[in-house]
Amino acid sequence: MHPLLLATGAGLASGLALVVGAAVAWFVHVPRTLVATITAFGAGVLISALSFDLVAEATRSGTFWTAMAGFLGGAVVYVGLDVLLERRGARKKRSSGSTAASGTGLGIALGALLDGIPETAVQGVGLASGGSLSIAVVAAVVISNLPEGLSSTSDMKANGRGARYVFTVWGAIALACALSALGGYAILGQAPEGVQSAVTAVAAGAILAMLADTMLPEAFRKTGPWTGLIAVIGFFAAYGIHVIGG
Predict the structure, then answer these.
(1) In angstroms, rounded to a whole number, what is the distance separating the alpha carbons of residues 173 and 125?
(2) What digits encode the pLDDT tens for the residues 23-48?
(3) Residues 6+ away with beta carbon under 8 Å from 146
C-alpha cells in the first residue's frame, strides 16, 4: 500500500476508535470502572509507545538535543493550550462523582483534538522519514481513544445531546485525525531529519503531558491503587508488541 494511503488509514483508524467508543456508550451502559480500567491500560500502552517508538526514534534520526528540545516543547505547548481551554471553560476536568461541566460538546471536541493531533501526526511523520508504520503507536492511540469516546459520549448524552450531534462531533474528529496523519506525511516528507526528529519528540512530549494531566487521574478516580498495576500491564503488552514487531 502507498505510504500516503497507509498514513491516512492509520490516522482514520485512530480517530474511528473515538466513534466506536461513542457508539458503545450510546447503545450500551458501560460501567465507569470498566472505562477507567481501559483508560489505565491505554496509559501504560502510550508510555511504552512514546518511550521506545517516539523518543528513541527522534533521538536516532536527530540528536539528543533536538529530541529533548522537541519533547519539552511538546509538553509546554500541550499544557499551555490545556490551561487556556480550561480557563475559558472549554475543557473542565471531572470531579469525583460528577460529569463533565461542559455539556455542549465543544470542550470535549477541543480536548479530543488537542490529544489526537500529535498522536496521529506522528504516524505520518514516521512513514515520511522512510520508516514503517509503528503498530505499537497505532495500537496505543486506538486503545487510549476508546475510553475517551465512551466517557465523553456518556456525558453528552446525560446533558441531552442527540445522536446526530454526538456522532457528527466524533465523525469530524475522526476526519481531523486522518488529515493530521496525512499532513504529517505530506508536509514533512522532504523535511530534514532534524525537523522530523523534533516533530516526533513534540508529539511524545504532548502525549506524556496528556497522560499525567488527564488519563491517569481519570483512571485513578475509579480504579484507585490498582491503576498503577493496570498501567504496567498495558506497558508490558505494548513493549511486547514493540519487541516482537521489531
Answers:
(1) 19
(2) 998 999 889 899 899 989 989 988 99
(3) 17, 18, 20, 21, 38, 42
Say which amino acid occupies 68: M
Closest CA to 75 of 195, 228, 213: 213
Whether this model's pTM surpasses 0.85: no
pLDDT over threshold 80, residue 112 = no
pLDDT tens for each residue of 157-180: 877 888 998 899 899 999 999 998
Give the burial string for 151-190 (b: 16+ CB within 10 Å, else e): bbbbbbbeeebeeeebbebbeebbebbbbbbbbbbeebbe
What would the grid cell of residue 109 be? 471536541
Q: What is the pLDDT of residues 223-241, one digit of tens each?
A: 999 999 999 999 998 888 7
Residues 6+ apart with CB under 8 A from 224: none
